[in-house]
């Protein structure tokens, strides 16, 4: 039908009537029993109308509507929340969704012209035309006077106060002095919104059209390149070689190793079509490369002289998780390195596992200034296909949660037996063939998320100098309308000179000479983007032959004589690098608490700590700890987020550094004797 | 049925009877009319039986059977030719294929035990059991006495002599002195087999389970890393930043830009399923990233101060071509870099197009020692979405074919208008908005194939020193059974010392101290892998305090005093680097011939030249040149390969360096006046 088409076309139109009244279109997901299909509620209102969720709940007869996540919007409307408008609605949605419509629109004022806008397009249409269209879709249409008092529905009443409290919290999280370009919420009060703002406004990353995928912008990719250079240099010294294996695995090969693939199967993305041809055999995109690589290890390793074989690749893998994605931490495609090595002896393999773990610890501590605890995973948490898993574990102080940093696995001969990676016994061909001892180890772009969460603050990103794409920005200051052209030129020239001298000694420096922005705006901009130090150069500095240096992390000011520029600036950058690590280490140390009695366990967790406790080492006890430390909910489908510490504590690792156990010391949870200290925590 | 299962299981079994007689299983594809489905012929014979194709043709009643390509084997038998044996046959194939069986097997000698072998497995079974199994499948079984004279079928007679000639050529291509580990065919006589052997035996690459995908082993990936380092350093100086965009594009976005995607659509791989869930919207794997990136360019570029935006990424792209794949040159997944930049003015964009082309030329000439001709593509050959395309064109002397090296496109405002990448006019907001001028430029791992084809020889790879993973190998020589332990130790220590001194000055040196191999074997091994120089160190060298250096490319010998090691070795490496380029440039120069008259055009092509000719610049004339220079075939489905120069000549580029045209000079093909000199050639 013509009207429907014309409305659908609007999403690409760019006509805007000057006098049109802005509107908003929002999608809410009501609370639904786990087994029921959700019925989203679309709210269409004037931009100026407040649309509190109790009104929506009451009008639509639903419980606790909350803003729908991107997945749901994609599922129902095949578009992103940012691109969604009522123009996306159609007859097919009748019975599947409800529309709550602002009475101010619905009443049918003939002169009212509405502006429909999405992130990329705007269009203007008479309100009557839009209402007529909405009616034509057959979708249930519920007019609401949002200015009226809402009657709290009996069932939702106890929840209402909780939601109100949450809303108040969100309000309270707003920063009073937030600048237009900057972060608008408080890290301590609304961590997840803060994080999303920091990574996007800091230009680390942008959200992408395909849910769960993100764009790594230069500000984050440069960190990844620093990590690559650092790690490549060191693994090459260990004799590891880089290579590249295909991203595709045939279903036949992938499914050969059932136990291994079981964990990944629900998340594997399948290519079934090329051009317009259906493929005879479906082809998977690698979730990890064991099954891609090991058949060739079997082919290449013919003799003990072919060992060790040590290959690494820098690649992307795909795990189509259906859990809520999070920038850097949980993404459907992510970049990583995966090392896969084969050795003649278990000892040689085990030695390498530890060497790699040390390198991972080095990436966190030396490059990213993030402290980690080295340890070994429990049987429950280790890589299913391997003998044991070592790990570096980090800590996000703002949420009190642990986070797995990177893992280095010893696979034993489990895979080599499966893939027949074997050599003649060096002691003689009459002896049994020797299966190779294998390792695999990986570190992903998740590290960047951990770094951001650790150091950044309410003014934006804080980047450790060693990995910052730009380490220093030079900003001319003190120029006023009264400044003579000559003085202005002298200051600008001086700033450019400083910048160039820094670049000459390989400090990654830039200058901000844009006329249209004030120094204050430039300071805020460089803070948002995490540039480690700014160098202010003004009339006084010119006269005194100095420059004023301000550190991003703690606002410390240094006055540096120009003569000392080449010696002092690298020092200040290194001081900052060390300062970040020290501060983060103090946070981690203070929030890694010894707990010996179960009664202290959950309170310590709730106080945003991770816990080191004596433990019996029994998997069932670990499960019990997790269950018993979860805050029990009402059993409905509640997502776990940062504000809801309902998640139980997992074992994070058995730290390599073990304090002595008292004689006969009991497990923190059960009556058995403890065998070691284990680190537990809520985690990402 | 039990027998079938037991035979199927054989493909993984490793039991071998000592007395078993080796067999071979080959798959042939007969010549078939284009519209007909092929009926492969499986030939199962004793290893020792000669199975000439005329016998097969005659017995199976087919025309011109030739060894089937990997695709066909995969299609029918779901395995690779190397892993295929009669154990892969089953009832489902009845009516779809034919089996030609060696009479020596079929006659049913009860004592005959056969060995079935594939690359990864061997098994032994009585001949009678296998024949019984083959009969049970219901597949047409045709016994042939290969020792008998074959009656040439009338229809195939003229072809037969052609095939015989080809067979003779293949025979003649065999190298007389081929070593077991080395290349067994002559580059000049059977280029495609030679190429495949060189890349696989040189450990550049391995064939992979998914057709058209290949494994880049460290020996080739290291070349790619050198290219990355070289190129990154230079583009960063130009202000280009690296980044990473997702590999997925939603169908909605991909199909938004119809003209652009038209060329790629038949080759796009589609993800339609994740785990066991069908995706609501199918998601493409990027064949290139214009549609991935430009929506975000539109978002990020808000003001002229956001220009230029210069991003590059190193990634893999997927083009699911159905043409015959070729290592490095045509692969379904390949690595490349793609740069995408947006500028305020056409001039700024055009300048960058040329700068990048210079860098591409630098990668070929300075790193890979491969000469290229810089030029511009004709309208027919340019990137469809752009204003113009510049290119570096290489030349494969062994086949006389041109090869496109890398391209740098100026897109004009075609994409910026489509994706609304625009800024307010710097001259005032009353002036029309300015659409960004865009470029894109890309270089892929194809470069490695060009390098291999250019320099390598019948002893294996020849790697230019600047990109070789290993630049020098030290090999102890002259040790005999009479050598004293003391002398042996002195020589080995001396070799290790040489190796370490070279590494200390960043020469990528290694040593080959394996006892079990002779120096001759080690020489051949290092030659196969393309190591630029070998350093032989023996008793005489020890005494004279010298080392004997041999260049891989021309066997030139140098005696270098140990005292001069640090100065001479880098010089020798550089001499070799220059020598390779000079030789290849001479080849290219001698085979880039000026042709002014059409009568000389095809003869020059057939003499393995590319041609520079005066040309009118009219697209239809270009089409005519291509058609008229193709050797007309009999119209049946004949694949173009290196031995069959039936392919017409395409325009390769209009070289930047133009000689003057004579007044009124005519186009080489038509009666119009020539507007410039254009380079034409058969090409990859």
UniProtKB/TrEMBL annotation, chains A, B:
This is proline--tRNA ligase. SUPFAM superfamilies: C-terminal domain of ProRS (SSF64586), Class II aaRS ABD-related (SSF52954), Class II aaRS and biotin synthetases (SSF55681), YbaK/ProRS associated domain (SSF55826). One of its GO terms (cellular component) is cytoplasm. Residues 625-649 are annotated as: Disordered. GO terms for biological process: prolyl-tRNA aminoacylation. The lineage of its organism: Eukaryota, Fungi, Dikarya, Ascomycota, Saccharomycotina. It catalyses: tRNA(Pro) + L-proline + ATP = L-prolyl-tRNA(Pro) + AMP + diphosphate. Belongs to the class-II aminoacyl-tRNA synthetase family. It comes from Suhomyces tanzawaensis NRRL Y-17324. Residues 212-464 form the Aminoacyl-transfer RNA synthetases class-II family profile domain. Pfam families: HGTP_anticodon, ProRS-C_1, tRNA-synt_2b, tRNA_edit. Keywords: Aminoacyl-tRNA synthetase, ATP-binding, Ligase, Nucleotide-binding, Protein biosynthesis. GO terms for molecular function: aminoacyl-tRNA deacylase activity; ATP binding; proline-tRNA ligase activity. It is an enzyme of class 6 (ligase). Its EC number is 6.1.1.15.
């Amino acid at each position: 039908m013509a009207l429907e088409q014309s409305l659908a076309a609007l999403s690409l139109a760019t006509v805007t009537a000057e006098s049109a009244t802005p509107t908003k279109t929002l999608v809410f997901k009501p609370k639904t029993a786990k087994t029921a299909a959700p019925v989203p509620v679309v709210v269409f209102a004037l931009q100026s109308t407040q649309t509190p969720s109790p009104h929506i709940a009451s009008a639509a007869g639903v419980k606790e509507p909350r803003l729908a996540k991107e997945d749901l919007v994609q599922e129902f409307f095949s578009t992103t929340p940012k691109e969604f408008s009522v123009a996306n609605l159609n007859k097919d949605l009748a019975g599947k969704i409800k529309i709550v419509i602002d009475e101010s629109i619905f009443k049918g004022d003939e002169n009212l012209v509405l502006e429909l806008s999405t992130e990329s397009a705007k269009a203007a249409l008479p309100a009557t035309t839009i209402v007529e269209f909405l009616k034509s879709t057959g979708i249930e249409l519920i007019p609401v006077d949002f200015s009226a008092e809402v009657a709290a529905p009996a069932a939702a009443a106890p929840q209402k106060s909780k939601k109100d409290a949450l809303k108040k919290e969100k309000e309270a999280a707003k920063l009073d002095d937030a600048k237009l370009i900057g972060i608008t919420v408080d890290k301590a009060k609304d961590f997840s919104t803060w994080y999303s703002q920091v990574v996007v406004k800091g230009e680390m990353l942008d959200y992408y059209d395909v849910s769960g995928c993100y764009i790594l912008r230069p500000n984050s990719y440069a960190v990844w390149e620093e990590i690559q250079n650092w790690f490549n240099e060191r693994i090459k010294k260990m004799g590891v070689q880089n290579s590249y294996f295909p991203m595709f695995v045939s279903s036949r090969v992938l499914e050969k190793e059932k136990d291994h693939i079981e964990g990944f199967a629900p998340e594997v993305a399948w290519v079934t079509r090329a051009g317009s041809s259906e493929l005879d055999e479906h082809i998977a995109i690698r979730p990890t490369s064991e099954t891609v690589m090991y058949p060739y290890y079997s082919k290449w390793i013919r003799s003990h002289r072919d060992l060790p074989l040590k290959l690494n690749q820098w690649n992307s893998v795909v795990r189509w998780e259906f859990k809520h994605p999070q920038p850097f931490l949980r993404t459907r495609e992510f970049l990583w390195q995966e090392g896969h090595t084969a050795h003649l002896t278990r000892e040689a393999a085990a030695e390498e596992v530890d060497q790699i773990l040390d390198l991972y610890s080095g990436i966190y501590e030396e490059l990213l200034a993030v402290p980690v605890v080295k340890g070994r995973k429990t049987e429950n948490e280790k890589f299913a296909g391997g003998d044991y898993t070592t790990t570096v574990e980090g800590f996000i102080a703002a949420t009190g949660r642990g986070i797995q940093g990177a893992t280095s696995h010893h696979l034993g001969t489990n895979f080599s037996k499966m893939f027949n990676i074997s050599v003649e016994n060096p002691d003689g061909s009459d002896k049994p063939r020797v299966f190779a001892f294998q390792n695999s180890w990986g570190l992903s772009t998740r590290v960047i998320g951990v770094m951001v969460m650790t150091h950044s603050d309410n003014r934006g990103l804080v980047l450790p100098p060693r990995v910052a794409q730009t380490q220093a920005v030079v900003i001319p200051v003190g120029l006023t309308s009264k400044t003579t052209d000559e003085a202005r030129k002298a200051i600008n020239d001086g700033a450019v000179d400083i910048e160039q001298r820094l670049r000459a000694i390989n400090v990654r420096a830039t200058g901000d000479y844009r006329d249209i922005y004030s120094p204050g705006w430039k300071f805020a901009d460089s803070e948002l983007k995490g540039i480690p130090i700014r160098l202010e150069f003004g009339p006084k500095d010119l006269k005194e032959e100095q420059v004023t240096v301000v550190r991003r992390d703690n606002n410390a000011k240094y006055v540096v004589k120009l003569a000392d520029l080449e010696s002092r600036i690298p020092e200040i950058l290194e001081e900052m690098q060390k300062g970040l690590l020290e501060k983060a280490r103090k946070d981690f140390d203070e929030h890694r608490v010894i707990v010996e009695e179960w009664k202290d366990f959950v309170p310590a967790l709730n106080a945003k700590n991770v816990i080191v406790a004596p433990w019996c080492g029994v998997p069932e006890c670990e499960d019990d700890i997790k269950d018993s430390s979860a805050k029990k909910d009402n059993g409905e489908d509640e997502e776990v987020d940062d504000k809801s510490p309902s998640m139980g504590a997992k074992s994070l690792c058995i730290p390599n550094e073990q304090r002595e156990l008292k004689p006969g010391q009991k497990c923190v949870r059960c009556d058995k004797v403890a065998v070691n200290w284990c680190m537990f925590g809520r985690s990402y």
